[in-house]
Automatic annotation (TrEMBL):
InterPro entries found in the cross-reference section: URB1, URB1_C
Protein's recorded name: Nucleolar pre-ribosomal-associated protein 1
PANTHER family assigned: NUCLEOLAR PRE-RIBOSOMAL-ASSOCIATED PROTEIN 1, NUCLEOLAR PRERIBOSOMAL-ASSOCIATED PROTEIN 1
Listed GO CC annotations: nucleolus
Domain of life: Eukaryota
Stretches assigned to the URB1 C-terminal domain: 128-315
Coiled-coil zones: none
Signal peptide coordinates: none
A GO BP entry: maturation of LSU-rRNA from tricistronic rRNA transcript (SSU-rRNA, 5.8S rRNA, LSU-rRNA)
Length: 577
């Protein structure tokens, strides 16, 4: 479904609309086969040219691409190509087949009077594409999908091959389930049918033994339920874990719309999954599979709201507490769940407390996972800050939260230093760039923290808060690349912290020999801000006023603090101002 392919398909439609006979070129072939095939056609006499056979066309289909198509087939795409390209993720565009081309192609290949080798057709996996089209929101796409199945059924009836009875039984099983004209089948059910069709072409498959009796013994399929959920999830077979894994993969891949979630809810699917997760019978592999299913569900807004009402956040909170640092894959999948949930969660206050619980657990995970988690935290904090809800707008980050963030922050800086040592200076490292992105997100989160630096708090708490603040500042100034954050948000926050510090401890610490490097970095940022104006719009200009006021404040306090009043740093401050 690349842009070029879509344009070519639209061009074919324009030919057909303008009464140009394309039958001489049908069925169409593509790729390298098309180059050789149509060049022969041009060079040969018409009566000597041989049309592509069903086998020729089926050989062009790539099994991996079929598998990707049934997972990401655009459910809202119309059947008729148009001049406006159908937008989809660029990384998927070249990995899936365009059903607007494939379904008419199958209708042509299976038309009455054509020679169809049914064995080749089912072995090629293309039947999976027809089944998945039945879950489209577009009636014309579904109608063509049902039409292709009806044509294939006619060929099956007159065919002679060993597995004929199985396939007739399978299609009868679906036909008997259709109660109305051209119904939309939930994506989970159509994916179930597609995967069963693939399994029936491999009698040695592990799932064949349990799925064949289900199809052969029942006259019809209830398309408003998750097929065989209880038998597969709570089975008594020796291979019950294999069956459960297959079912969980089906749920993970099939949950794409609110209709899919609705049929799961009718069967109490998520009640069963969440209970099984915390039971002693659940393996780590099953836990990861359940979390992936949950991740698919919370991407659907209505599903996320329903699960939230049923206590999903409390369940996630308990799971985080019980998760061990060694459960790397479980923690990684948990991060994916909360990232997806962050888009649709109604309660950001409770959600943010859960994110803070997860922060100390991700210290040893990969950079991409950490980045996704802290990005979700930053978005949630921003939503609460701008919320009309008084409870959310008054949310404050605790000192303990900052200490947890600080530990993960430090571990990432160590990773960055290791990365630099392992690569040449002129070599660009992708991981290093991601670490730098993470460090900036950490810095942006830190300015939501309001350290308590008042006179009336215990001295021990004051020192603890002051030490945390200075440590955070030290890490912020280790970020190599500058952004608007350094010239706008940071000076406002630092100025606010200094003003609330009635004991002037922050200034005194910054002027000490141990922390003088941080103050030097502040002066450098102030001087750099003069060169940044041209980079940003008027509304985003560097907030030099706050740097100026902060440095004047430092100068005032240091002048009164006679022990260092004649230090070199004062001259630097004065020169900068």
């Amino acid at each position: 479904m690349s842009n070029i392919d879509q344009k070519l398909l639209y061009l074919l439609k324009l030919y057909a609309d303008n009464n140009i006979d394309m039958n001489d070129y049908s069925p169409f072939v593509w790729g390298k086969s098309a180059i050789s095939h149509y060049s022969v056609m041009k060079a040969s006499e018409r009566f000597l040219w041989k049309k592509p056979s069903l086998q020729d066309v089926l050989s062009l289909f790539v099994p991996e691409k079929i598998e990707t198509t049934i997972l990401y087939f655009p459910l809202t795409m119309k059947l008729q190509p148009c001049s406006k390209l159908f937008e989809m993720d660029s990384h998927l565009a070249n990995k899936i087949y365009d059903m607007r081309f494939i379904l008419p192609l199958f209708a042509h290949l299976l038309s009455p009077g054509t020679l169809v080798y049914c064995t080749q057709f089912v072995q090629s996996k293309v039947l999976m594409l027809i089944f998945i089209s039945l879950s489209s929101w577009e009636t014309s796409v579904r109608a063509l999908g049902f039409y292709c199945l009806a044509l294939f059924y006619q060929h099956l009836e007159i065919a002679r091959f060993k597995e004929k009875t199985i396939w007739l039984c399978f299609l009868d099983f679906l036909r008997n389930s259709i109660e109305s004209s051209n119904p939309k089948i939930p994506n989970i059910v159509s994916l179930f049918l597609a995967r069963v069709a693939d399994i029936f072409s491999k009698p040695d498959h592990q799932m064949y033994r349990i799925l064949y009796p289900f199809i052969s013994r029942k006259p019809l399929l209830d398309i408003r339920q998750v097929p065989e959920f209880y038998n597969l999830f709570n089975g008594t077979y020796v291979e019950h874990r294999i069956h459960r894994e297959w079912l969980l993969n089906l749920l993970t891949d099939g949950l794409r719309t609110s209709l899919d979630f609705h049929i799961c809810e009718k069967r109490y699917v998520f009640n069963s999954l969440l209970v099984h997760y915390v039971s002693c019978l659940s393996t780590n592999q099953e836990k990861v599979a359940i979390l992936r299913t949950l991740n698919s569900a919370v991407k659907i807004k209505s599903a996320a709201c329903t699960l939230y009402e049923h206590g999903l956040l409390t369940w996630i909170s308990n799971v985080i507490e019980e998760s061990d640092l060694s459960d790397m894959e479980v923690l990684k999948t948990l991060c994916a769940v909360v990232e997806s949930l962050g888009v649709n969660v109604p309660d950001h206050f409770y959600f943010t407390t859960i994110l803070w619980k997860l922060i100390p657990k991700v210290k040893f995970l990969d950079v991409c996972t950490i980045k996704s988690l802290i990005s979700t935290l930053l978005k949630s904090l921003s939503v609460m800050k701008n919320s009309d809800n008084s409870v959310c707008s008054k949310y404050r980050i605790s000192g303990e939260n900052m200490n947890q963030l600080y530990e993960v922050w430090k571990s990432l800086i160590k990773k960055l230093e290791t990365e630099k040592n392992e690569h040449m200076e002129d070599e660009i490292s992708l991981d290093a760039s991601k670490v730098n992105e993470c460090l900036l997100i950490f810095a942006k989160i830190s300015i939501f923290w309001e350290p308590i630096l008042k006179e009336d708090i215990p001295e021990e708490l004051y020192k603890k808060q002051l030490n945390s603040l200075c440590s955070v500042l030290e890490l912020i100034f280790q970020i190599n690349s500058y952004s608007l954050f350094h010239f706008s948000d940071l000076p406002i926050w630092l100025h606010k912290c200094a003003k609330t510090d009635t004991k002037h401890g922050l200034v005194k610490v910054l002027l000490s020999s141990e922390r003088i490097k941080s103050l030097t970095s502040i002066i450098e940022l102030f001087e750099k801000s003069f060169n940044q104006e041209y980079k940003y719009e008027k509304s985003q200009q560097p907030k030099r006023k706050y740097w100026t006021e902060f440095l004047l404040y430092v100068k005032e306090i240091s002048t009164n603090w006679h022990t260092i009043s004649k230090s070199l740093i004062l001259q630097q401050i004065w020169n900068a101002i």
